[in-house]
Design a protein that fits this description.
Structural class: alpha/beta
CATH class of the largest domain: Alpha Beta
CATH superfamily of the largest domain: Alanine racemase
Helix content: 25-40%
Largest sheet: 8 strands, parallel
Strand content: 25-35%
Number of helices: 11
Strand order of the largest sheet: 2-9-8-7-6-5-4-3
Radius of gyration: 22 Å
Oligomer: single chain
Number of strands: 17
Length: 385
């Protein structure tokens, strides 16, 4: 088998890099004394989940009902659905628990929503452990640490016969706005201390927290302490991407996913190359623009996934990607004739992987080069239900 036989655009997953990334985070969190509950919203693959949890624990975090069902049917029985639960999703989750014997932990930050969920759970005679979301500065969902509504939500959970108060969670989304590892460590400490503070307050009011769970790869990678925390839920660390390499989680050589594309056009008049991977294959995430304008939608590599000096995907249309060269570099036209192949390292692996239905999985041989004799296919669970 050769990479030349893979139809493009295609998502390539280097299992050797994936394994190294997974083992590195697993070892780090074990050393820090917290459980690893990997977030599978990036990979959406039971094969990846098994690899990421092979040494210990086994529970996973997911972000859609479809992922809950898929993971449960693949034999993973401890699942945290980490999106605020609405009453309309109680029935499918109850059905999944009943048919697979999985335990699905759910999330809330609102008394009214919680009461509606509790009523639906009682109607269906379904039971769920519930975490309460705390906002540690990310400004997305959750309740800030001094909000008196926290205790009201916890009391509502405790009063619901079909629900169990399981603890509190947070996600330091603001870590993605940091520029240095020291800044990420500072955010990680805010994440940790906020959750511990709320946990101690709840325990003092008679509501001990079994679980205090943090999230995000930047904070899991750079936290200096996780004292008081029981588990962490990083996700993109398994694949890494250009953004994570910039944040100090490994290097470009640790990125495990890439998009294989074919050169379909030369525009020498515009000094650009066209490839058959556009916005629907790469995503349009430009998360590095504020840090480096010459990364665009991804770094361009040769077929062995080695970066080609200065080349990046500058823009995209639906099925066209536009490659340009950074100032001081030039396009090697002769090395990239029409019909040749390139690999694009994603800026944000979560969004890029979401565009594909499956992974083309390869291992590295003893020489460190990818061995396409090992090629296999791993399915992804896309969609929401």
């Amino acid at each position: 088998m050769s990479i030349d036989y893979i139809a493009t655009p295609a998502l390539i997953l280097n299992r050797s890099r994936l394994t190294r990334n997974a083992d590195r985070m697993s070892a780090r969190l074990k050393e820090m004394g917290v459980h690893l509950r990997p977030h599978m919203k990036t990979a959406k693959s039971a094969d990846v989940a098994r690899l990421a949890t092979k040494d210990h624990f086994g529970g996973v975090t997911v972000s859609t009902v479809a992922e809950v069902r898929y993971m449960a049917e693949k034999g993973i029985k401890d699942i945290f659905y980490a999106v605020g639960l609405s009453p309309g999703k109680v029935a499918p989750l109850a059905e999944i628990q009943g048919s697979t014997e999985a335990v699905v932990t759910v999330l809330t930050d609102n008394v009214a929503a919680l009461n509606a969920v509790a009523a639906e759970a009682a109607r269906l005679d379904a039971s769920f452990p519930v975490l309460v979301e705390i906002d540690c500065g990310g400004g997305r969902a959750g309740l800030v640490a001094d909000d008196p509504a926290i205790i009201e939500v916890v009391k509502a959970i405790a009063a619901a016969p079909n629900l169990e108060f399981a603890g509190i969670m947070t996600h330091a989304g603001q870590s993605y706005h940091c520029n240095t590892t020291d800044e990420m460590a500072e955010v990680a400490e805010v994440e940790r201390s906020t959750l511990v503070e709320v946990g101690e307050k709840l325990a003092g009011l008679g509501h001990p927290c079994k679980t205090l769970t943090t999230g995000s790869t930047p904070t899991a990678a750079h936290a200096k302490s996780m004292e008081g925390i029981t588990e962490a839920r990083p996700g993109v660390y398994m694949f890494s991407d250009v953004m994570q390499a910039h944040f100090g989680w490994g290097t470009i050589d640790d990125i495990a996913v890439s998009v294989l594309a074919t050169v379909i056009g030369h525009r020498t008049d515009l000094d650009q190359i066209l490839i058959d991977a556009g916005g629907l294959a790469l995503s349009k995430d430009r998360g590095m623009d504020s840090r480096d304008k010459n990364i665009g939608l991804g770094l361009v590599c040769d077929v062995t996934a080695q970066p080609i000096q200065g080349l990046y995907v500058d823009d995209s249309h639906q099925e066209h990607g536009i490659i340009k060269a950074a100032p001081g570099s030039s396009i090697p036209w002769d090395d990239l004739p029409i019909g040749s192949r390139v690999r694009v390292l994603p800026v944000h692996a979560c969004m890029t992987a979401a565009a594909h239905e499956y992974y083309n999985v390869v291992d590295e041989g003893p020489d460190g080069q990818e061995d396409y004799a090992t090629l296999t296919i791993w399915k992804r669970q896309n969609g929401w239900y």
